[in-house]
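User: I need a structural model of Dihydrofolate reductase family protein from Streptomyces rochei for a docking pre-check later this week. Nothing fancy, just the predicted structure tokens so I can convert them on my end. Input:
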Amino acid sequence: MRTLISTAFVSLDGVVEAPGGEPGYRNSGWTFKDVEFLPEAYELKGREQKEATALLMGRVSYEAFSPVWPDMEEFADYKVMPKYVVSTTLTEDDLVSNWNETTILRSLDEVAALKETEGGPIIVHGSAALNRNLSDAGLIDRYHLLVFPLLLGAGKRLFSTTDKDAQKLKLVEHEVYANGMQKQIFDVVR
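Assistant: Understood. Predicted structure tokens for Dihydrofolate reductase family protein:
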């Protein structure tokens, strides 16, 4: 069974919306506008590309990333790996042609089936709604969180507000950086 890893830039109050400057959110760009950049705090991002064997995202993140990431040197490893987009509305004609193999999945059942295939870790970038749904369905195995010392208030959250049983997590790696950021890696305890 493949490991499904959710990776996120998250504010201390759980907001994941528009960390890189995506339009339409009041605090857009909060990862680089409001916190000093320290390269060592982002080591995890490079490691993720080396360890992941597939990239999973929702439609909104696909539409944001696919015009930009294929040509970015920082994301060269993602360009060559298979990508999966969970969407009920995207069609094959909506997919970009310069980002290697991309498969549209129509349901969480198809994500669960993907996890049962042979291969290494699958990483989920962005995709707030997809992350909440994956978590509620018990499909996420690990969280890679870069927590920023900010309270953003309103905004899309990483974790759902669904009334459900507690989910235990095991902290397997952590680090605190001089700029107040924290790396927190948790395995989901089953």
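Before docking, keep this in mind: The mean pLDDT is 96.
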